[in-house]
Amino acid sequence: MRLVLIAAGLGLFVSLLGTPLLIRFLRRHGYSQAIRVSTEGELYPEHEGKRGTPSMGGLAILAGLLVGYFGAHLAAWRAPSVSGLLAIYLTVGLGCVGMADDYLKIFKQRSTGVRARTKLLGQAVVALSFAYFAVHFPDADGRTPASHAISLVRNTGLVLPTVLFVLWVWFLITATTNSVNLTDGLDGLAAGASVMTLGAYTLVSVWQYGQNCAFGEVANCYDVRDPLDLAIFAAAAAAACFGFLWWNTAPASIFMGDTGSLALGGAIAALAIMSRTQLLLPLLAGLFLIITLSVIGQVGSYKLTGKRMFRMAPLHHHFEMLGWQEIQIVVRFWIIQGLLVALGLGFFYAEWVRQ
């Protein structure tokens, strides 16, 4: 538990104090994201006041995460686990994909960034390589970082062949990263929701460590490899995101950009896959799912009926078009996320009690 607190403290310190330094650097060089504006055929919420706000704030989150995670291991003179390194790989790898997208938005002033197919290809390379490595490197007991089994709170009896497992992991990572990316449309919305999800995974991993099968085979133990290291990773990520939120909340002094949203999506997906809680994601990351479903519903409705379900998708922009204030939307969506995360943690604990 001491290492979890060290990781969180370092992650918070670096992100909270490092973000304003990043803001000054980006402003000095004029690195700000292009703002989408309404056109004759497409209305868009009025965000002119955000023009000139620097982006790529995800770099501060990644810095806090890396310093928090590796700093905790240095403090205890403890080698990182394979699970922790794989989580770092997925997070940083997807962050680099997002950084390429931010580069076009900032340096080329192209508000749409990288083409969708190019971004998906980059995500696929990182996700598929992660899936491959995650079922290798067994420990002394033969446990690999990830399992071929579909998991809810622990592994189920549905075991996938390697090819289907790799495709399943690819789907989970792509869905999670793009969900966080879609949610990052209002000041502090994605960052605040991510803090809750990552905080929940810190609690889940700490609990799995205390009840781990490595300490003795009992009926309700968790067969998860490296749960303590996953808790250290989750705590560092949550704290780094929390420190960034200080500067990202409305009115934002900096945006996380795709660098941050894709990295956070990768961190959440890595934790779900390696903590054996894949199907618990719809609750622990519930707000991201709702936002994504609003986009799917909007596109599907328009193609099938020629009519839109919402004034604009993603869902938070629909409420902007209705006249809601940005801070009102963000806080109410945070409340929804908090309720869903609490429900997910309650389901996780209830399953253990029921055993």
UniProtKB/TrEMBL annotation:
<dbReference type="InterPro" id="IPR003524">
    <property type="entry name" value="PNAcMuramoyl-5peptid_Trfase"/>
</dbReference>
<dbReference type="GO" id="GO:0005886">
    <property type="term" value="C:plasma membrane"/>
</dbReference>
<dbReference type="GO" id="GO:0071555">
    <property type="term" value="P:cell wall organization"/>
</dbReference>
<feature type="transmembrane region" description="Helical">
    <location>
        <begin position="230"/>
        <end position="247"/>
    </location>
</feature>
<keyword id="KW-0472">Membrane</keyword>
<feature type="transmembrane region" description="Helical">
    <location>
        <begin position="279"/>
        <end position="302"/>
    </location>
</feature>
<feature type="transmembrane region" description="Helical">
    <location>
        <begin position="56"/>
        <end position="76"/>
    </location>
</feature>
<dbReference type="InterPro" id="IPR000715">
    <property type="entry name" value="Glycosyl_transferase_4"/>
</dbReference>
<feature type="transmembrane region" description="Helical">
    <location>
        <begin position="120"/>
        <end position="138"/>
    </location>
</feature>
<keyword id="KW-1133">Transmembrane helix</keyword>
<keyword id="KW-0812">Transmembrane</keyword>
<feature type="transmembrane region" description="Helical">
    <location>
        <begin position="189"/>
        <end position="210"/>
    </location>
</feature>
<keyword id="KW-0808">Transferase</keyword>
<feature type="transmembrane region" description="Helical">
    <location>
        <begin position="329"/>
        <end position="350"/>
    </location>
</feature>
<comment type="similarity">
    <text>Belongs to the glycosyltransferase 4 family. MraY subfamily.</text>
</comment>
<feature type="transmembrane region" description="Helical">
    <location>
        <begin position="6"/>
        <end position="26"/>
    </location>
</feature>
<dbReference type="Pfam" id="PF00953">
    <property type="entry name" value="Glycos_transf_4"/>
</dbReference>
<dbReference type="InterPro" id="IPR018480">
    <property type="entry name" value="PNAcMuramoyl-5peptid_Trfase_CS"/>
</dbReference>
<dbReference type="GO" id="GO:0044038">
    <property type="term" value="P:cell wall macromolecule biosynthetic process"/>
</dbReference>
<dbReference type="Pfam" id="PF10555">
    <property type="entry name" value="MraY_sig1"/>
</dbReference>
<protein>
    <submittedName>
        <fullName>Unannotated protein</fullName>
    </submittedName>
</protein>
<feature type="transmembrane region" description="Helical">
    <location>
        <begin position="254"/>
        <end position="273"/>
    </location>
</feature>
<dbReference type="GO" id="GO:0008963">
    <property type="term" value="F:phospho-N-acetylmuramoyl-pentapeptide-transferase activity"/>
</dbReference>
<feature type="transmembrane region" description="Helical">
    <location>
        <begin position="158"/>
        <end position="177"/>
    </location>
</feature>
<feature type="transmembrane region" description="Helical">
    <location>
        <begin position="82"/>
        <end position="100"/>
    </location>
</feature>
